[in-house]
Design goal:
56% helix, 2 domains, alpha+beta, 4 strands, 4-stranded mixed beta sheet, single chain, 304 residues, AhpD-like, globular
């Protein structure tokens, strides 16, 4: 491929910041977008893209999808985008009846990648001078691989999780914990990334996350958590004040990484929607490590 795929009338959001700074991650995002659009079908995929964009930028303008999505699919999509813990079996069942089990999974996989790509587009336009980056950065020969939607999405998530960056590990883990709590992901709530046999974020530090703005966390950590909240709840809330807070405490590359970390750990939305996120252990907290491929490995148990 010599450019971004155009099999869909809905092009991939303009994520040239990611394409320039993390071409490996962008390649996988392109691949997931292409794979999901093929699995769902062009018309339905375009309807999903349009509805997600409106929900995140101008919810008052959201209208019916002219039959491209069924009412049941629209209801499921809307709740997924707005607040995934409230996705219930009653919302899933009619869509599964329409599409089958694999079709429902493809639909949720598509919601994940469209939702996250759109949120990154919205927030990056507020954080960076996107127009200053030559659009030609989007014209690299992105290699598309044939795979399933679920596998394509996992590869996107794992590529970010595997990154060894200059972003402090504590800050990465604070963002992950915030995402797990907001999305009610029991799996993510039950694991802690470890370093030298101990949690990267201590129990005492973790207790400050809920009311982070009033805590003694560092200004940078507060800004990172504020970005995480905006990304997950209302991306248009990212404003100049938040951008300035991030710039005062992180480099441009670190800010980009924060945005990708939040997107990565929003994979929880997919798992929560499908009730595929049980605790790693019913009684204990599980220490985990992430290898160079982004795969999570379980370790010791903690009596938290």
């Amino acid at each position: 491929m010599s450019d971004i795929p155009t099999i869909s009338a809905s092009p991939l959001p303009d994520l040239r910041v990611v394409a320039r700074s993390n071409p490996d991650v962008f390649t996988l995002l392109v691949n997931a977008w292409d794979t999901d659009s093929r699995a769902l079908g062009m018309d339905a995929f375009d309807a999903v893209c349009h509805r997600v964009s409106n929900l995140l930028t101008n919810p008052a303008s959201v209208e019916g999808s002219a039959g491209l999505l069924t009412p049941a699919q629209e209801k499921l999509l809307d709740q997924y985008v707005k607040y995934v813990p409230d996705v219930t079996a009653d919302l899933l069942a009619p869509v599964e009846a329409e599409l089958g089990n694999s079709g429902l999974r493809n639909f949720i996989d598509t919601l994940y990648i469209v939702d996250q790509a759109t949120r990154l587009d919205i927030t990056h336009r507020r954080l960076f001078d996107v127009d200053a980056i030559q659009s030609s950065v989007l014209d690299s020969p992105w290699e598309l691989k044939k795979t399933s939607p679920s596998r394509a999405n996992v590869l996107y998530h794992d590529a970010i999780a595997a990154k060894k960056t200059i972003l402090p590990q504590i800050d990465r883990e604070l963002v992950r914990l915030r995402a797990g709590d907001y999305h009610h992901c029991e799996y993510c709530r039950s694991i802690r990334i470890e370093l030298d046999g101990a949690p990267v974020v201590s129990r005492d530090l973790e207790s400050r996350i809920a009311n982070y703005e009033e805590s003694d966390l560092t200004p940078g950590q507060k800004a990172a958590l504020a970005y995480a909240d905006a990304h997950m709840q209302e991306p248009t809330r990212v404003d100049r004040a938040l951008r300035d807070r991030l710039r005062e405490n992180y480099t441009t590359e670190e800010i980009i990484q924060i945005t990708l970390e939040v997107s990565c750990w929003n994979y929880q939305k997919l798992l929560v929607a499908l009730a595929l996120a049980p605790r790693a252990n019913d009684e204990y907290i599980t220490l985990v490590s992430i290898d160079d491929q982004g795969v999570i490995h379980h370790g010791e148990l903690l009596n938290y």
